[in-house]
Amino acid sequence: MAAETGNADQLQFDLRALTGEIWRRKWRILLVTILLCAATYAVLLFVPKEYESSAALLVEPRDNIFLRAAGDTGSSTGGATDDVIVASQVELIQSADTLLRVVRDLNLDEIEEFSGVSNSPIDQLIRLIRPGGGERDLEQIALARLQQKLTVIRQRDSRLVSILVRSRDRVLAADIANAIANAHVSRRAELSVDDTEEASTWLANEIAKLRTAVSQAEAEVAQYRVDNDLFVGPNNTTLVDQQMADLSSQITAAQERRSTASSRAGLIRSLLNGGQPIDGVSDVRESVVIQSLSADKATLQGELAQLSATLLDNHPNIQAVRAQIAEVDNQIAIEGRRVASALEAEAEIESSLIQSLNDELTRLKLTAGNASAASVELQELEREAKAQRDLLENYLARFRDAASRTDSNAALPDVRVITFAVPALQPASPKTTLILAAVGFFALTLQVGLILFRELSFVPATVRAQDDFGEERQVASPVAPPRQLPVEEDRAPVMPAAAMNDAAPRTEEAQSEPEDMDAPDFTNIGAVIHDVVNGRTQVVAVLSLDHAADHAGIAEQLIISSLDQGLSVALVDAGSGSISNQLGLTDLTANLAEFGDVVQTSDIEGLTEVCWGTLPRLAPNSDRPATLVEALADIYEVVIVIAGTVGAGSNLKLFADLDARLVIAAGEKVRPAVYANVVEHAAEWGFSDSCLVEARLDASHVA
After folding, report:
1. Taking the alpha carbons of 482, 486, 492, 496 in that order, is the dihedral positive or negative?
2. Is position 683 within any domain?
3. Does the residue 109 lie in any domain?
4. What does the pLDDT look like over 239-260, one tens digit per residue?
5. The domain containing residue 332 runs over which residues?
6. CA dihedral of residues 386, 388, 394, 400 (deg, nearest 10)
7. What end-to-end distance do the CA atoms of the chain give, in Å?
8. One domain, residues 594 and 445
9. What is the rounded distance in angstroms from the CA atom of residue 486 to the CA atom of residue 648?
10. Which residues pair with 415 in a beta bridge?
């Protein structure tokens, strides 16, 4: 463990010494690094350069509506996922059958890079002695080396497959990549054609069997119809069914005619019995006799009207005409009864016809019942024949499609080349820049590490003892006792020594202060409160000019006024020095607590406090207090910081460069030189807006 505060000077000296030791040997470190990089570069010059080219394949079904079989709605992958399909394609590309085609097409067994055999006389003699075996051996060697130089990968979350090939010849690398891609596409096309051809052979055999089965089934249907008199008429219905349908229609028509005749006869008799004219009935009006009688009646009525105009009602001529009209009406009634009798006779005829038709229908029903029992077996035979016929027609259509594809090689493979490889411009290996950078980094790290290890291995015994003591003391008492530390080392002085303590005797420089210097003007605390509650000032830092100034009272007035206006307030204690059991600002600067641990909610509603903490002093030059105040300013509407008293008790510098207003509290008579010096230093730390407020302590507090 590193030494605590008591050993901080020693540790700083050690770090400076280590840095100096490294800097002293910088030229040696640089020289060794350069030599290692140069040696590495020289070795890389003799390493053969390899170029990498890549071709890309897209794996997807290549269905075409114009090449699809009749009734085929689309291709099917058999339920396999994309991962399985693409993985299968990758394995096929890397298979020996595919790569062997490339070896033979490009004669890779004759290239020294792949065969390992040069064109020297010795190698040529060996090939002449063993031509067959030598070729097979060279071919297998070329295949094995091609597999080593080949990389087939699937692009992430896609159906793209990249074929990467490395070779010393950049043109050859591109040619091999393209050859592998084309060989795989050709192989997949051949496999598709082979599948189609096998399907055509199988369909031809099945069609030959089905033709015999269909002929036999249809012959059985025809023979059964002949044996059971199940002849079929129009509309694919049996003769018995047609006859029954005709008889039913005739019976219905006869019943309609009988009902019509009976209704008309009844109407005529009801009109005659009621003494009403029957001329309006269509059957009566169509009778020739009725028509003649109606004409005579009309003539007589005309004569009666003419005679009535010149003669009296009792005149014999008028009475004679009336008698003739009555006779005509009587004849019309007789003729009407005759028409009604004729209609009734027609109804009886229709009834007889209906009876005979019903008898015939009953006979046909008995015949139809026997035919229905036989038609059940007939339908079974027909269904079997139809199923055989449909299957035969389906197989015939598939066979025609498969045969056409086989003859024209129309089957498309499920993979295509979408990117052809081109010769690479830069070598893929070795990576000279990357290797040199790695060697340089390794050389620098190793040399610096050796220096640090050697220097740290010889730590003086006094330092180790102080470290152990500091560690034991920290475990025994987490809170170190307060002690007076030099201002120059432990804490940067906020104010000059002349203004450190107003109660101390004045120095000669202070005593010789010019008497004519203007006294500083005091600002009313009400003006500061007005700016705070109106939002013009958000962060206020309160600093005591002397020990008689009540900076806590000023902070209390600001807090009360802000809370009365409904504002949220955060109070940061950076000057009281009151050690407590709660984590606070001192723990934050010592890295013993996080920001959220030191912010405590007060019992007063709307007030949040950050107390002094468990340590006696704040860590010097820590930027965490300023960061805490900036974070509180983003959350709360008013932030008040108590910065302590000018001199060794002030921590104003820890809040430098904050957008805050500095309120300087003065208790006794203010010396203009001291105040001017305080304002000057505060301005250097970013507190450009400052004011002097009179705030004396009570007598009880002073005592």
Report:
1. positive
2. yes
3. no
4. 667 777 888 888 888 888 888 8
5. 236-403
6. -130
7. 46
8. no
9. 9
10. 59
